[in-house]
Design brief:
The structure holds two protein chains of two kinds. Chain A is an alpha+beta fold. Chain A contains 28 helices and 27 strands. In chain A, strands 15, 19, 20, 21, 22, 23, 24 and 25 form an eight-stranded mixed sheet that branches. In chain A, strands 5-6-11-8-10-9 form a six-stranded mixed β-barrel. In chain A, strands 18-26-17-27 form a four-stranded antiparallel sheet. Chain B has a three-stranded antiparallel sheet. The longest helix of chain B is centred in the last third of the chain and has 31 residues, at 87-117. Classes of the chains: A alpha+beta, B alpha+beta.
Amino acid sequence: MFRRKREVKDFNAEIEAHIQLESERLRGQGLSEGEARAAARRAFGSATRAKERFYESRRWLWWDHLWQDIRYGLRMLAKSPGFAAVAILTLALGIGANTAIFSLIDAVMLRSLPVESPSQLVLLRWSARNSPNIHGYMSAGDCPSDLGMRHNGANAAAKPSGCSFSEPMFQEIAEANVFSGTAAFANSGRLNLTGNGPASVISGQLVSGDFFRTMGLKAAIGRLIDAADDKASAAAVSVLNYGYWQSAFGGSRDVVGRTIELNNVPFTIIGVAEQRFTGIAPGSDYDVWLPLSDGQRIGNSGPFRWNDRQADVSFWWLTIVGRLKPGTPQAQAQAKVSGLFRNEMLHGAVPLFRGGGPAGVAGPRAGGPGGGPVGREMVFGGAPPPGGGQAPRSLSAAPQPPPGQGGMQVQREAPGSPRPQSPENQRTIVAGPPGAAAPGGAHPSEMPSEPKTLSTAADNPEVTLVSAQGGLTGARTRYADPLYVLMLAVGIILLIACANVAGLMLARAAARQKEMAVRLALGAGRARIVRQLMTESVMLSVLGGALGILFAYWGAHAILSFVSSNQPRPLGFATGLDLRVLGFTVAVSLLTGILFGIAPTFRSARVDLTPVLKEGEGSSTRSGRPGGKWFSIGNGLVVAQVALAIVVLVGAGLLVRTLDNLRSVDVGFDSHNILVFGIDPSLIGYKAGQIDSFYRDLQGRLSETPGVKSASYSMMPLLSNGLMVTSFHWPGMPQDQEYEADTLGVGPNFFETLHIPFLAGRGFNSSDFELSAANGGATPTSAPTPVIVNQAFVEKYAGKDKPIGKLFGQSEGNANGPASAGYEIIGVVRDTKYNSLRREIHPMMYTPQSAGGASFELRTAADPQAILPAIREVVAQVNTNLPLFNVTTESEQIDRLLFQERLVARLAGFFGLLALVLASIGLYGLLSYEVAQRTREIGIRMALGAEPGGVLKLVLRQGIVLAIAGAAAGMCVALGVMRYLSSMLYDIHTNDPLTMIAVAVLLALVALAACYIPARRATRVDPLVALRYE
Amino acid sequence: MSTQEAKNRLELLQGTLDLLILRTLIFGSQHGQGIARAIQETSEEELLVEHGALYPALQRLEERGWISAKWGTSSNNRKARFYSLTPAGRKQLVKETTKWKRLAAAIGRILGSEVEGG
């Protein structure tokens, strides 16, 4: 029951009434009015005490006190605006930096999936003791996969697992009715869009009919794909992304019902998805969604073959998400799904091979039907038909293991941009050029001969249900490391800020000792004093936090715009101050206030009354025992600040030097003035032979364009993050031993255009291209495919043999593939970097490019971007329906490759300087305060004949000793923690002496400056004034 | 307040004031001064009730919901705050009275025998 609080006035009135009644009674007994009133008061006792007791019984007393404290605190802050400004600004910087980085972490790592009740969604994840016997495996990078294949001699993963399933498996699970909704999706690959202005290349996702219903999504306009659309007989329909609808169709409501052509197939637009949904995985952003059943239509006209994967149990390409039925425990659903999976794996029939080629595998070669290499074969996102079928054993596009992680992943397309060629989006590997969604055929290297099932009982295949929120990592993993490092850095900065403000508070507490003593003497409880001081410090931190939110807002925006300027398309992440971020800031602010307030508070509350009250204002006696004061809290705080600043500075130094090292890496070719763009005629139905002549024709026209010095093309540009690896057999080695080399298909004049010098042999001539095309086609010749290799290849494989003319990679036909004539080395070129700057140079072979999408490289005389309009015109003369995509320059590509490093180095550098500034303010503040406190002592010294130089030294000595102690402690901590940075560093050791020395020198200089100002002030002390001071 | 008269009176034991207030109110609503008088008179002037202590006690009982209060007019036409017993207060009174009687009886038995023995 809630009772209204009784007013104090009402209580007082009651007491007054009592006195009246009592005195009237006494008068009735014969007393005079004055006597009666006095007697009534006497009988009442202390009215004040009664009132006090009434007051204290009120429940809101606590708030009254708080309000009092706040008003008092505000008055105190207003009395020393300098202190308040420094403290609030320091805290605002610390809290703001934390909020900014946390809002990024929130946006990237923590935000819930953009669907209805995401907590009910589960992701299916399979695992088994050995890799299943499957031919095709695709993952869009929404969730990490590990097929457990050996790569470069690395050990296979302990337990292969992944999130891709075959379509029959998906149908079975959907029909089993385990979930209230079951959705499957896969990357549609690169889509060539025509029918809406100039042709363009967009990204799409294939989704099952139940996808949007399962996610609980609504249409912004029109309708979304439903079960009826996901049938082979249904008309081809598409749903647009809200943002894409706005940018490409101007947000026109007339789009519903319009027809667009995707890879030459007409699709009717039926609606636009709601704005918040850009893709299910974090950071993903698709332009269109298409029904799963339309995959075949767009797939068959593209460079990869669809190959009836709908019916193929050994082609795994769909990610499955289910919505748990209310009331069905997750364990029960998991048991059921796992049972279905196990049954399929152990008892399902496996169509292993079909007519000499891998069954159901979209062979990695676009042009050549049949005779595909098997064995280990993996093609990444959109894998290009790698150089035709020259690979006797197989071609495998292997992912580059992410730095610092041992595992390897199969194909990982960038969720952010499903176009495989956009480098920024692919941390792990990628993909090749055209034909985005090319399937990867994956095959375990230790394939048992003629397996009858996908797996054996001993492999214990199973499915676990993981929350979609946690399981669909998407682009998250790419940003996790730098974000956590930055969070650590800003956490340290906040600690420095706390120590800094604590130091200020201590100094203030000392100055307020007398005030506290008076309050204690007047009967204030110590608890009340502690509370008053805590209120003040929390108030400071809350004010700092409020200002910090402002800083954070700017900061996060600045960071995001930096990120966006380095991406071909906007990031699928949106930052903002949501409740979680605000909650974080409030929590951090309060915690900060308590943290820096606690030491000074207890010191104040422990004041010994008598000496303080007796003493004059600027007490000089306290400084009379210099021996003991080295261990004061103030000194400790400054040492801690310097130490923490050193840690941040060393980290920042290492990251900045890493960026420097990467910038000065020798890429092996001249990266200036090279225009790069992708163009892919296979998307609109060109066949192998037509493709080759298309590129040759375009190359000729482009070379003659004014401003272009030389033109060539390759399967993908260098330094675009794409990587393909071929495995082969080296003559003289055991038959089952496989070797690997990075592989890149290149057009005529490639080496001349990029300025890669030949060390031996010759370049490709037209007969080499014909031979390569033939070997990659339906009827391979018996002649080996000519290749050009790099120095690393010669060193590793050829040894002392003369490399030119060397044959390798021959194989006789076997279960794993047809016979192949292998390769012949016709030239040796200088080493170059391939996919990234960090990856060391591996043995590499260049093959004559044939029958797949490619990217052009144009060596220009001047600014490459300037001649772009002319280039577009030339391309339009050949075919108006062929858009250029991923238009960029080599220098820009390098910048983009380094974008994360640049971002981290820039932020870390900024935070390092911030830490340094805060620590020197702390040092300065402490020394200024001490000089002020010791004015009298210094005055006496000077009066007794001390030289100004001696006084200067006296103060400087303290500052320098503190700085050195802090620096030493910081170096020790830095040596300990920097190894956590090692995965982000390049060509620099975590305890790099140069960085350490540079940081120490920088700190020493700044510390000296911070100490010099108060020291100078000390030398100007006038002995007469100082002695009269008290 | 330490008049000679007051010194001869008994100080109230801790916690008994609440009980006395509740007991006094059993005869109907009464204002603070009336309660104070009633306690003093009923105890034949033996108990010392500091009037000032009465009001925080009344406040406490009111907050616990044992008594309710409203402003009214006294017999001699003065405004005063009148307190009356709530059903919960009545229950509390019965409980406390029983407890007090048992306590008093027990203490009486012990002290009684000691006096005889002495």
